[in-house]
């Protein structure tokens, strides 16, 4: 397991380097001169030349890249054009908001999706199976913005059960420690605030969870069906084992590799910022942050946002790879 | 009968195992480790051995479906391992293969006619009309009917599928057929039909067979000479009568005694070998069989025995046989 | 027949597919006595495996169903037992091993976890006792390094070792009947010899009755005392192994024996049964073997012969008057 993990870790290095190269080139792929873009169309040639020099844009590309790489490695992501703040400190709260939302959504998607898939496979061709799969089909094809608006209309407007927008109530601010509000409120012992944060989280999490949940349910079903037909399941039955136990303990562990792959991909996508969900629910996540930067043509922020999103994606896949090794003892040897 | 068709000399296939963080080659699996044999025109050479002994790899290397690591394969006087891809294609026309799983080796989306015709198209034989006439002829040759050409593989039983596989192999009029476990997926009653067919075809078309199988009775039935493989090496090679009547190598003896005889009166004492075949990545020192051999002596773990000819013409690789 | 532990009478099992009911086992009766080894021989599709799955209550659900007959285990009909009741028998009184040792063990659990499972299910034992029993079982089936093996995964073992583990699992609760479905078919000859030897040894030591299902007549001749030959879901011949091999009564049995190439003497041409095994349900009238039979008579195409005889029974019109 250790050698496997080290190998995976070493394989991350070229991937991460490749990622920085791509993100670095984005700024050069933009039409026109970055300095021009930053200063606007009315800038004098001297001002542009001056800015180019101060940004190091007059140096050869590889020098620029290594400067960029050094900055990234030392945690310097540059400053935002809009407000001149250091991006590195500005981006974390947004990222934390997205992580919190993604985690909640994934939890819902996995718990419901996996169980629905299991029961569908177990009771194949039964009414339960048909209902679950029809619901999953609807889930996959449901536009998020529509579902989000529907939720807001029912649970906020009509029933007034849940807040429709934001990460917290406007009147109540959570003192940031980690910026993960669920953690922060608990650390401070503010259980009332914790509940408030949870209530804000429910609707966007459910909206965000729908599609992954449906995908996970379908993947679980097909993967479980394959496993349930295998010889070792018959062996377990021949021992006199209970079906429930066989399904949940025996079959699930075997069926979990493809499910895990889907979970990993979906988590990666979520961490990339669920722009739709974040926009509808006014959730100050990284998606919204980058979206606003794009609106304002704030290239350093866009560049850093993409870098962080790509990094998260790679890390999720790395973790998934490690989990493969934990679940299936045969993988280490490949 | 004595004209040489194929001469395989010191054939080897080594697979490196890459391990660890930097994919370094830590060890080598010696799948086939220096196998030599000759095949004469019109005869059947049987190759037996247990799984992992390298018999299938050997068969595939003769057709260069697997590239050998070392050795010579001399077919009709030329070493085919030196041939270019283009030249090799011509040789492939003369050497054909029949596989174990008749279902997996037939394309389910092609009709039987297309399947049998395909090798003729590949080797640019005749025009369309001639090829189709040949397909009909082949189908009847292997005991099917001309109208079967329009059907798909799934409409046939296992035995019939194997007949289709044989017809496909025969389409290009090969000189040598390598049959890799051709009957092991079939039921007993069908197995004998296919064995008989192979024998009839051999007589009719003057074919040469290399018959690779794990079933010792089947191999004996069809082969003129039989080679026994163990851990990538040929341990005994002899005339099939001689080999089965009086096996010399202790492994051949154990293998033969392990075969359950379909005769309840015959309950001869079996030699039961202990343990499993060792991994070809870590073959035992000296004779590869010494750690399971019931008669092993000190020399067996020290020196690798070589295949040598005994007075009666058979080849054995064992220190203790003279 | 008072000492028979398992008695199957007139068992009929069908599969219900989109094309309707397909009879896989069509009215078979046989019994297994305490401590004996009964061979069940037949080619693919003859219903031998379905018979074993019917006994174990492991028919694929919901397609496979027992539609008639009885399976008496220790005097009680278990053919329609409730799942919870059946579970108590499975793995405890009735155990089973399968053809494919490579796929019959769960790849992601250790040998120890899989071996102690059946012990834990049917006995009250502490963790330590379970482990001791597991080690004892591995030694019983002739596996070295028993203690370390418990922590290993199936892929680290060879096919022969895995089949030994399967046997250890099956033997873990001292079953009265062990059903072995083609236990050596996927193994090499030398390993097959080891496994058959082990099964004989276990049969003698523990007095577990074995129902050995196989297509290999050689295995039957070497291991079994009594043999049942199946064809097309029916028993076509039954009797003592010596009678069956020396004087087969049913043309099918005779054909099977003659089609095997001989290890000791070379025949010029093998006998072969013409045609191939019919699909279940495809022959509606007469003896199922009639289309392939060398001795076929007009009568055979119209009527189904009964399984008749005392001791050595056969289902063939050639031998009906002997009974």
From TrEMBL, chain A:
<feature type="transmembrane region" description="Helical">
    <location>
        <begin position="9"/>
        <end position="30"/>
    </location>
</feature>
<dbReference type="Pfam" id="PF19300">
    <property type="entry name" value="BPD_transp_1_N"/>
</dbReference>
<protein>
    <submittedName>
        <fullName>Peptide/nickel transport system permease protein</fullName>
    </submittedName>
</protein>
<comment type="similarity">
    <text>Belongs to the binding-protein-dependent transport system permease family.</text>
</comment>
<feature type="transmembrane region" description="Helical">
    <location>
        <begin position="130"/>
        <end position="149"/>
    </location>
</feature>
<keyword id="KW-0813">Transport</keyword>
<feature type="transmembrane region" description="Helical">
    <location>
        <begin position="194"/>
        <end position="216"/>
    </location>
</feature>
<keyword id="KW-0472">Membrane</keyword>
<feature type="transmembrane region" description="Helical">
    <location>
        <begin position="301"/>
        <end position="327"/>
    </location>
</feature>
<dbReference type="InterPro" id="IPR000515">
    <property type="entry name" value="MetI-like"/>
</dbReference>
<keyword id="KW-1003">Cell membrane</keyword>
<feature type="domain" description="ABC transmembrane type-1">
    <location>
        <begin position="95"/>
        <end position="324"/>
    </location>
</feature>
<feature type="transmembrane region" description="Helical">
    <location>
        <begin position="95"/>
        <end position="118"/>
    </location>
</feature>
<keyword id="KW-0812">Transmembrane</keyword>
<feature type="transmembrane region" description="Helical">
    <location>
        <begin position="255"/>
        <end position="281"/>
    </location>
</feature>
UniProtKB/TrEMBL annotation, chain B:
<dbReference type="InterPro" id="IPR017871">
    <property type="entry name" value="ABC_transporter-like_CS"/>
</dbReference>
<feature type="domain" description="ABC transporter">
    <location>
        <begin position="6"/>
        <end position="256"/>
    </location>
</feature>
<comment type="similarity">
    <text>Belongs to the ABC transporter superfamily.</text>
</comment>
<keyword id="KW-0547">Nucleotide-binding</keyword>
<keyword id="KW-0813">Transport</keyword>
<keyword id="KW-0067">ATP-binding</keyword>
<dbReference type="InterPro" id="IPR003593">
    <property type="entry name" value="AAA+_ATPase"/>
</dbReference>
<dbReference type="GO" id="GO:0005524">
    <property type="term" value="F:ATP binding"/>
</dbReference>
<dbReference type="Pfam" id="PF08352">
    <property type="entry name" value="oligo_HPY"/>
</dbReference>
<dbReference type="InterPro" id="IPR003439">
    <property type="entry name" value="ABC_transporter-like_ATP-bd"/>
</dbReference>
<dbReference type="Pfam" id="PF00005">
    <property type="entry name" value="ABC_tran"/>
</dbReference>
<dbReference type="InterPro" id="IPR050319">
    <property type="entry name" value="ABC_transp_ATP-bind"/>
</dbReference>
<dbReference type="InterPro" id="IPR013563">
    <property type="entry name" value="Oligopep_ABC_C"/>
</dbReference>
<dbReference type="InterPro" id="IPR027417">
    <property type="entry name" value="P-loop_NTPase"/>
</dbReference>
<protein>
    <submittedName>
        <fullName>Oligopeptide transport system ATP-binding protein</fullName>
    </submittedName>
</protein>
Automatic annotation (TrEMBL), chain C:
<dbReference type="InterPro" id="IPR003439">
    <property type="entry name" value="ABC_transporter-like_ATP-bd"/>
</dbReference>
<protein>
    <submittedName>
        <fullName>Peptide/nickel transport system ATP-binding protein</fullName>
    </submittedName>
</protein>
<dbReference type="InterPro" id="IPR027417">
    <property type="entry name" value="P-loop_NTPase"/>
</dbReference>
<dbReference type="InterPro" id="IPR050388">
    <property type="entry name" value="ABC_Ni/Peptide_Import"/>
</dbReference>
<dbReference type="Pfam" id="PF08352">
    <property type="entry name" value="oligo_HPY"/>
</dbReference>
<dbReference type="Pfam" id="PF00005">
    <property type="entry name" value="ABC_tran"/>
</dbReference>
<keyword id="KW-0813">Transport</keyword>
<keyword id="KW-1003">Cell membrane</keyword>
<dbReference type="InterPro" id="IPR003593">
    <property type="entry name" value="AAA+_ATPase"/>
</dbReference>
<dbReference type="GO" id="GO:0005524">
    <property type="term" value="F:ATP binding"/>
</dbReference>
<keyword id="KW-0067">ATP-binding</keyword>
<comment type="similarity">
    <text>Belongs to the ABC transporter superfamily.</text>
</comment>
<keyword id="KW-0472">Membrane</keyword>
<dbReference type="InterPro" id="IPR013563">
    <property type="entry name" value="Oligopep_ABC_C"/>
</dbReference>
<dbReference type="InterPro" id="IPR017871">
    <property type="entry name" value="ABC_transporter-like_CS"/>
</dbReference>
């Amino acid at each position: 397991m250790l050698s496997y993990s080290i190998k995976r870790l070493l394989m991350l290095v070229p991937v991460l380097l490749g990622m920085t190269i791509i993100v670095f080139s984005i700024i050069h792929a933009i039409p026109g001169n970055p300095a021009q873009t930053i200063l606007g169309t009315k800038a004098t040639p001297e001002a542009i030349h001056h800015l180019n020099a101060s940004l190091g844009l007059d140096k050869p590309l590889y020098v620029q890249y290594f400067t960029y790489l050094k900055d990234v490695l030392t945690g310097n992501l540059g400053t935002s054009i809009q407000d001149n703040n250091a991006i590195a400190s500005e981006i974390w709260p947004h990222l934390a908001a997205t992580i919190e939302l993604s985690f909640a959504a994934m939890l819902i998607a996995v718990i419901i999706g996996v169980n629905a898939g299991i029961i569908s496979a177990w009771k194949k061709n039964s009414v339960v199976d048909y209902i679950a799969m029809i619901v999953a089909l609807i889930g996959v094809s449901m536009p998020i913005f529509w579902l989000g608006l529907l939720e807001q209309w029912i649970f906020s407007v009509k029933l007034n059960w849940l807040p429709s927008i934001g990460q917290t109530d406007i009147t109540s601010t959570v003192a940031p420690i980690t910026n993960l509000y669920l953690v922060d409120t608990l650390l401070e012992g503010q259980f009332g605030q914790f509940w408030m944060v949870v209530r804000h989280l429910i609707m966007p999490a459910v909206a965000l969870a729908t599609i992954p949940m449906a995908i996970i349910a379908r993947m679980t079903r097909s993967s479980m069906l394959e496993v349930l037909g295998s010889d070792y399941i018959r062996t377990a039955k021949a021992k006199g084992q209970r079906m429930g136990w066989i399904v949940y303990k025996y079959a699930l562990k075997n069926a979990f590799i493809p499910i895990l792959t889907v979970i990993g991909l979906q988590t990666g996508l979520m961490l990339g910022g669920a722009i739709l969900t974040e926009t509808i629910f006014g959730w100050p996540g990284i998606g919204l942050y980058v979206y606003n930067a794009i609106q304002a043509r704030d290239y350093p922020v866009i560049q850093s946002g993409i870098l962080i999103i790509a990094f998260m994606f790679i890390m999720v896949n790395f973790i998934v790879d490690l989990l493969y090794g934990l679940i299936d003892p045969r993988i280490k040897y490949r | 009968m004595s004209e040489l068709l194929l001469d395989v000399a010191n054939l080897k296939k080594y697979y490196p195992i890459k391990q660890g963080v930097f994919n370094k080659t830590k060890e080598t699996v010696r799948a086939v480790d220096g196998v030599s044999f000759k095949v004469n025109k019109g005869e059947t050479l049987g190759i037996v051995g247990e799984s992992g002994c390298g018999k299938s790899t050997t068969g595939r290397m003769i057709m260069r479906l697997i590239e050998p690591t070392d050795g010579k394969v001399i077919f009709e006087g030329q070493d085919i391992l030196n041939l270019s891809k283009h030249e090799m294609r011509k040789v492939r026309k003369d050497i054909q293969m029949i596989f174990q799983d008749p279902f997996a080796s037939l394309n389910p989306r092609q009709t039987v006619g297309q399947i049998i015709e395909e090798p003729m198209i590949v080797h640019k034989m005749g025009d369309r009309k001639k090829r189709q006439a040949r397909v009909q002829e082949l189908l009847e040759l292997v005991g099917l009917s001309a109208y079967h050409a329009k059907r798909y593989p799934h409409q046939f039983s296992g035995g019939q599928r194997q007949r289709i596989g044989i017809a496909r192999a025969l389409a290009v009029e090969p000189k040598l057929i390598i049959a890799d476990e051709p009957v092991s997926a079939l039921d007993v009653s069908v197995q004998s039909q296919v064995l008989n067919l192979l024998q009839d075809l051999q007589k009719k078309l003057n074919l040469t067979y290399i018959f690779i199988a794990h079933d010792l009775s089947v191999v004996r039935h069809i082969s003129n000479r039989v080679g026994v493989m163990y851990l990538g090496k040929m341990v005994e090679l002899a005339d099939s009568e001689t080999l089965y009547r009086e096996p010399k190598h202790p492994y051949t003896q154990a293998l033969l005694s392990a075969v359950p005889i379909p005769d309840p009166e015959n309950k001869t004492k079996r030699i039961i070998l202990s343990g499993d075949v060792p991994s070809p990545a870590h073959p035992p020192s000296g004779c590869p069989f010494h750690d399971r051999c019931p008669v092993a002596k000190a020399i067996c773990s020290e020196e690798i025995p070589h295949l040598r000819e005994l007075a009666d013409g058979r080849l054995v690789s064992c220190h203790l046989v003279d | 027949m008072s000492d028979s532990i398992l008695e199957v009478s007139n068992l009929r099992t069908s599969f219900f597919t989109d094309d309707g009911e397909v009879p896989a086992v069509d009215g078979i009766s046989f019994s297994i006595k305490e401590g004996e080894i009964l061979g069940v021989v037949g080619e693919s599709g003859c219903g031998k495996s379905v018979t074993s799955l019917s006994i174990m209550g492991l028919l694929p659900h919901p397609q496979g169903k027992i539609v008639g007959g009885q399976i008496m285990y220790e005097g009680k009909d278990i053919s329609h037992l409730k799942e919870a009741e059946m579970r108590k028998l499975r793995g405890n009184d009735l155990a089973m091993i399968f053809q494919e040792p490579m796929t019959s063990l769960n790849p992601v659990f250790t040998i120890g976890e899989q071996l102690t499972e059946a012990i834990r299910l049917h006995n009250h034992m502490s963790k330590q006792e379970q482990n001791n029993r597991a080690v004892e079982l591995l030694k019983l089936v002739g596996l070295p390094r028993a203690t370390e093996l418990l922590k290993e995964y199936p892929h680290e073992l060879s096919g022969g070792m895995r089949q030994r583990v399967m046997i250890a699992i099956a033997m873990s609760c001292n079953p009265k009947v062990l059903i072995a479905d083609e236990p050596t078919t996927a193994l090499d000859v030398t390993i097959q010899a080891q496994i058959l030897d082990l099964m004989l040894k276990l049969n003698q030591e523990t007095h577990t009755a074995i129902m050995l299902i196989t297509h290999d007549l050689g295995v039957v001749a070497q291991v079994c005392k009594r043999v049942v030959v199946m064809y097309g879901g029916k028993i076509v011949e039954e009797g003592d192994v010596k009678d069956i091999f020396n004087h087969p009564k049913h043309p099918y049995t005779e054909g099977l024996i003659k089609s095997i190439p001989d290890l000791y003497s070379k025949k010029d041409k093998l006998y072969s049964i013409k045609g191939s095994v019919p699909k279940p349900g495809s022959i509606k009238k007469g003896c199922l073997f009639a289309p392939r039979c060398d001795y076929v008579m007009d009568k055979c195409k119209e009527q189904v012969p009964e399984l008749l005889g005392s001791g050595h029974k056969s289902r063939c019109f050639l031998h009906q008057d002997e009974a």
